Amino acid sequence: MADIVRDYECCAIYKGDLEAEKLDEYVSAIRDLISTRGGEIVRVDRWNKRFLAYPIKRYTEAFYVIYRWHSSPELLGDLNYQLRYNDNVLRYMVFDYTEKERKRRKRLGHGKAKTA
User: pTM of the full predicted structure?
Assistant: First the structure.
């Protein structure tokens, strides 16, 4: 059976007191995990330090990192483990971007051929 390849997006919020080199290590570790498990990185966006809307684990500032990639769903278990047990990650969320895009296209009417 052929592997199902989907588009995923992950938003990870890292502690605001991290050194730049440490944050680079964590970002490259996630990139390497995705690449070695057969995924293809589309882009990684690193935002500067931002104020949080509310404190998370007593932190009021944090770094946001957005990962976009293509992979099979089996990768998500390892990614979840890597992010959940990293003490420097305050929160993270993984989105199935394939489903999000499909719903957006359907809502905008791009999913069907229009009849005159």
Answer: 0.81
